Amino acid sequence: MAVFLVVPTVVVVVQAFRTDDGAPTLANVRELGNADIRHALLNSVLLSGVTALVGAAIGAVVAYAVVTAAPQGILRRVVTAASGVLAQFGGVMLAFAWIATLGLSGLVPTLLRDHLGTDVDTSWLYGMRGFMLVYLYFQIPLMVIVFLPSLDGIRPQWREATESLGGSTWQYWRRIAGPLLAPAFFSSTLLLFANALSAYATAAALNAQSTFILPLQIGNAIGSEVVLGRQNVAKALALQMVVIVAIIMVAYTYMQRRADRWLSP
Hints:
By secondary structure, the protein is an all-alpha fold. 75% of the residues lie in helices and 0% in strands.
């Protein structure tokens, strides 16, 4: 905790308000108002929000299909094992897999061009739409992993009680299961948002020359060979992300506690 979380956070907070010489300054924080940085922030929020919502919706459906299957059946074991692997299959490996498949010289465009005479423009893979598609590759499995325990917490007796009182399936989901699962669903969505917001390696491997999202802005500020002396600006950008993620995680903790009141074993 101290080495990998506390110390880096303290360094970011302190150096965001210092010059390269160690003097106090607010110039680094003022850089956050630049148009390109604001644009990168909006793109990061859009990318994280879309992939979190879509990933949460699809992942919840997959998790529900797993819960309704046999507890020790092959479907549950295969899906949970695959989700555990795919949720961690990110970074350079994931980016390379997509570039090798759909990149400008990837397998699919090459086959279509050589065998069907069809030129397919896959340059979108390196922009916002491509990032969304690639991010969903690890967002959906992550949702399955984090939402599955909440679905397991829904007791069959609650549905039986609803049916015995004359309630329909719609009434059961609207009045019982839906309200009970809502905090867990929203907390899982927040976790996916934070996960996408902080992802760097996948984005850098896909398009290292671009700076249209915050993680790439930070990497460019640290390693730029054009404009030197921007390392502390990178700390200010990182501080901005720390604040955003901290707010998200506080909301996640609150929603998770509400869900645990009823859904914990």
